[in-house]
Amino acid sequence: LPTSFNPADIDIASLRLEGVIPLAVPPTPKLGDRDEDGTPDLMVKFSRQALIGLLCETDRDKGTVGLRVTGNVAGDPFEVRGSVRVQGQCP
User: Fold this and answer.
1) pLDDT tens for each residue of 45-62
2) Which residue has the higher pLDDT, 38 or 23?
3) Contact 5, 74 (CB under 8 A)
């Protein structure tokens, strides 16, 4: 997020992984500074099983896969992108 936004202002209910997977609760999202860089961050988790299902359905079950999280902060939409390494094994 841009430095002008506070992670505490993120609308938790708006967060989606790949536009469709909502947060997994529990655990409860946590504010903190996990990477100890002095900038507040928000730790959230998504269902691993839901992600595996989505990646298998979209033929993205091997190699480095781009993922995105979308949501709203202080009424403004945002998108964060990253990647994970996937080894296959669709059910």
Assistant:
1) 999 999 999 999 999 989
2) 23
3) yes
Residue 71, Cβ neighbours under 10 Å: how many? 21
Angle at the Cα of 70 from the Cα atoms of 66 and 71, rounded to 5 degrees: 165
Where b means 16+ CB within 10 Å and e means fewer, 52-66 reads eebbeeeeebeeebe
pLDDT at 52: 92
Among 63, 54, 69, CA closest to 84? 63
Over 80: is that where the pLDDT of 3 sits? no
Asked whether 71 and 39 are in contact (CB, 8 A), the reply is no
More confident residue, 90 or 53: 53
Q: Which two tokens stand for residue 50?
A: 């839901």
Q: Rounded to an integer, what distance in angstroms lies between the CA atom of residue 43 and that of residue 15?
A: 12
